[in-house]
Structure formats: C-alpha cells, structure tokens
Amino acid sequence: MENGLISVDRWAKGSSAYFLTHLHSDHTIGLSSSWSYAPLFCSRLTAKLLPFKFPDFDLSLVRILDTGSWHTLSPSPAFPATLHVFAIDACHCPGSIMLVFRGEFGCRLYTGDFRWEPSCEKARKAREMLVDVVKDDVVDVVYLDNTYSNPIYDFPSRQLAANRIIDIISSHPDHDIIIGINTLGKEDLLLQIARALKIKIWVWPERLQTMHLLGFHDIFTTNTTLTRVRAVPQYSFSIDTLEALNTMRPTIGIMPSALPWVKKSLQKGELLSGSFLTSRFKRGRMSENGVQIDKQIGNTGPLDKFHEYIYSVPYSDHSNFAEIEDFIRLVHPATLKGIVSSSSCYIEPMYYFGRLCRVNQPIRRQLHNMHKRVEAVSPKISFGGDNVKSERNKGKNLKGKFLGVRVSKLSIYRRRQRGVKIVEDNSLDQD
Ligand SMILES: [Zn+2]
C-alpha cells in the first residue's frame, strides 16, 4: 500500500510530498527523469546532482532542504496537513541527509544511510544539531540505517581505513591500482590517496563530471597515462578483470567496503561482489532465540588480502555496530525500524537495540501498541514502504538461510532492493 502523506526514498504514486535522502541507486528506485507526482525535497547538493542522474527531470518540483533549520509544509489543497521537517548531515556521501519529521503523527527520525564516527568533526556537529532538535521531544520512531546492526561489524573509522589503503598502495610501488567505487561517495578517500601519494586518480568520464560538479577540478583525470591509480565502477571490479590486467601489468585491486564477501564456488566471469569470501568472519553458535552469533576471526585489523590480486579494506560510509548503538542511546526513541531489510546477517534491529528504546518490551506487543497509538491520532499518515509483515517475514527467511549457506551477493541485494523499508502504520496490524 503506497498511499500516505509523505514518502521518504520511495517513489510510488500516492503521497503529497517526497523526500530524497541521497542519490544512491537503492534509494532512487522508481525515480526517473519523467517522475512528477509531487514536490521532491532534498539537500542543496543532491538538487545540484539530480539532473545529472536524471536528465530532463522537472526541476520545478525540487524543494531545497538546507540543514540546520526547520522547514514547514503548510496545509493546502495539495498538502492536507502541517508538517515540520529538519535536515541534518548524514555524513554518508555528498548531499546525504537524515530527516526529523514533526506532525500529527508525532516525531519521527529517518536516518537514511549515515556514518557518524566519533572522530569526525562533521559528524560531531551533526550530532549536536540532532540533540538540540529532539531535546524537548520524544522520537516516536527511528527509521534506522541498519546495514551493520550486528555486533560482528566492528570496523575502524574511515580515516584509519584510508590510511591502510594508502599503505597498501605505497607498498606496491610498481603496481597499477584499481579501486572499486560507486557513482557517488568515497570522494574523501580518493582525495586522501591523491594528496598522500601526490598523484592524480583516474575515473571514468561520467564520474569525472560528478567530481567537477562537486568542485574537484584538478585531482581527477580520464587520462590513463597520468596515473597508476584508477577508481573504477564496482560492477566492473572482478577477479576476471584483475587477472586479465595482470597479464599486461602487475595490478592489484582494492575494494573499500565493510560488507563481508561470500566464499563459495567462484565461477569464472562472476563478479567479485557476488562471489568472494568472508574470511573476516566465521559462523558461531546459535543463540537461544535462533539468532546466529558470528565472530570476527582474530584481530585482523582493517586489512584483509582476499586474493592474490585483491585487498578488501573496511572503509565504510555506514555506521558500524558501536556507532549505531551510540546513536540509538543518544536519540532514545520509543521504537525503531530498520530501513535495510536484506542486508547481510539481517536481524530485526530491536533485537540488539530494543533495550535502548523507551518502550522496552517484546517487539510484537510494541508494534501492536504503536499501531493503536498512531491510528488513534492520525490514521491517514503513513511513510511509504513495504508493510511490516512482509518485511519481518523477509527477516525470518534470511535468518533461516543462516542455518545453511551464508547469504550471498549481499552487496548486490542491497542495491537491488526496492527502496528503503519504512514502517507503514496502516499495516501494522497485519502481523
Ligand atoms: Zn547510500
């Protein structure tokens, strides 16, 4: 069911306003150049990048949400309620924001994808801003970036991971270097590499245009003769590619990601992101409630060499488990809901973080109560998304898979999912 007042990172018809947290493709499924259902709210930088991703998009629909102040949508024929929204830097990729909503439905916080490291100055300021915004309020629901909401995800800050990547490149002075990146994000990493090693970095032509839009004019190039370091699209980062490159020149690949890769029968031609190994983790015992407890193998630090030619370094634009825990402790919401339903090692976030919520009670009872409360106040308010029942069942299915083969292709799962899963109040009674 898609009807509702607003949608966040969901683009089906039926809402009166739409909010875009950032331009990664798993948050824009359904958005297109011809999309025109209602006003679209996003950060200033996302608005700048939007026409590049969606040429011919009707820019008269775009509304800018600057961070640091409340924005109010007043009732009108097109928008039948009063809504207040506050945007805060999510420190995930250029233009990314998290959103605090206030309205008849109460106060809700949608994190989008975010990384708030204690050592990051930008994140510290964002954190202070959030504290100030919610200090007199109870956050009824946090829609959480639960990508790494499992204690196995104990990876370092981006700064430490970047240092490690620079070390790897420095220790291979005669090698070409291939780094797998997305169409947006990891710019800071590339800048640090360029500065530390005093080199330019090759990117593909569309990515160079994005870099120019972001204001980086001198560091990146599309001329392969100018540098030995190339940032390539993740989809082209494969074992086959690296083996082929090594027949011409010594080359190593670096994948900056904290997602564990899957070790299974590697097929020739299969992409690394769907076929590699998870050597940093091992299967642990089952807990009493059927949750698989994984453990990291030893203290391998931020570096793992997975293959003769490939390193995987957990440079992540998503918060690790401890950072998420800190975040929930800070916000102290009534309840929370994960927005990533098919991440690796999926576990309902309330399992680990419910003790940090105000309503510390079994999930089923809590959801039931929340439904009754929301319905009493405003039955028509909804945040678009799959219903709770289907999402929770997906979670159960994934848990089931943990008993056997590890869930594979998890990075691809994440990109393929249909938008972000958000609680839809009208369906809470279906479970
Ligand atoms: Zn993202």
UniProtKB/TrEMBL annotation:
Cross-referenced Pfam families, in alphabetical order? DRMBL (PF07522)
Q: Name one GO molecular function term.
A: endonuclease activity
Give me the Gene Ontology terms describing cellular component. Answer: nucleus
A single BP term in Gene Ontology: double-strand break repair via nonhomologous end joining
Q: Which UniProt keywords apply?
A: DNA damage, DNA recombination, DNA repair, Endonuclease, Exonuclease, Hydrolase, Nuclease, Nucleus
Q: Which InterPro entries match?
A: DRMBL, RibonucZ/Hydroxyglut_hydro
Boundaries of every DNA repair metallo-beta-lactamase domain copy? 218-336
Question: Where does the record place it?
Answer: Nucleus
Stored PANTHER family: DNA CROSS-LINK REPAIR PROTEIN PSO2/SNM1-RELATED, PROTEIN ARTEMIS
Instruction: Please give the family membership noted in the entry.
Output: Belongs to the DNA repair metallo-beta-lactamase (DRMBL) family.
Task: Please report the name of this protein according to its UniProt entry.
Answer: Protein artemis
